């Protein structure tokens, strides 16, 4: 009997990569050959280990055909790694999406719009991740506020996903320029 997509096991991806910094963020970029094993050039939810430490994270696209993720202090300490170190990573893409952390400004806007909030609650966690990515993909506070208003309006109308959004671009303005992950500012600390 053929397995459903939900039951099919995703490939295990094993690679080594060097931790680097962009500004105050410590990041790890997947080698392109490893990233190509993922089912999407866009955001991908994964579970895995870094130097044996177990974690779950959403891989953000780098805008160049690969992915990256932030390695916070807890992960670095548990993996016994610092900026400049090469770490061993084992990943498996997950079909189940964790709930995203909803930014306070969006949370407040949704709380004041019951119809938009009802749609927000009804959409999938992946769709919520996409709305948040679209909203945060700007450094301009006025543009961000406008996107929150547009998101609430669209959700109120029943739209379940942001429109006209290139999901393969990097949407974290602290580490990207024009949808492309910036070059490292440091490889060692």
In short:
The chain is built from six helices and nine strands, in the order βββαβββαβααααββ. With 189 residues, it is α+β, with helices and mostly antiparallel strands.
CATH topology of the domain at 12-96: Elongation Factor Tu (Ef-tu), domain 3
The tally of helices reads 6
Low-confidence stretches: none
Query: H/E order of the elements?
Result: EEEHEEEHEHHHHEE
Label the structural class: alpha+beta
Strand content: 15-25%
Tell me the major beta sheet. 7 strands, antiparallel
Spatial shape: globular
Extended strand count:
9
- CATH homologous superfamily identity of the domain at 12-96: AF2212/PG0164-like
Rounded mean pLDDT score: 93
CATH top level class name of the domain at 12-96: Mainly Beta
CATH architecture identity of the domain at 12-96: Beta Barrel
State the assembly state of the protein chains: single chain
Textual characterization of the structure:
The protein has 189 residues and is α+β, with helices and mostly antiparallel strands. It has a domain at 12-96: Elongation Factor Tu (Ef-tu), domain 3, CATH 2.40.30.100. It has helices at 32-35, 73-78, 104-111, 114-122, 125-136, 141-156, and strands at residues 12-18, 20-22, 25-29, 44-50, 53-61, 67-70, 86-93, 176-177, 180-181. The protein has a seven-stranded antiparallel beta sheet. Strand 4 and strand 5 (53-61) form a beta hairpin. Helix 3 packs parallel to helix 6 and helix 4 crosses helix 6 (141-156). The longest helix has 16 residues, at 141-156. The radius of gyration is 18 Å and the shape is globular. The model has no long low-confidence stretch (mean pLDDT 93).
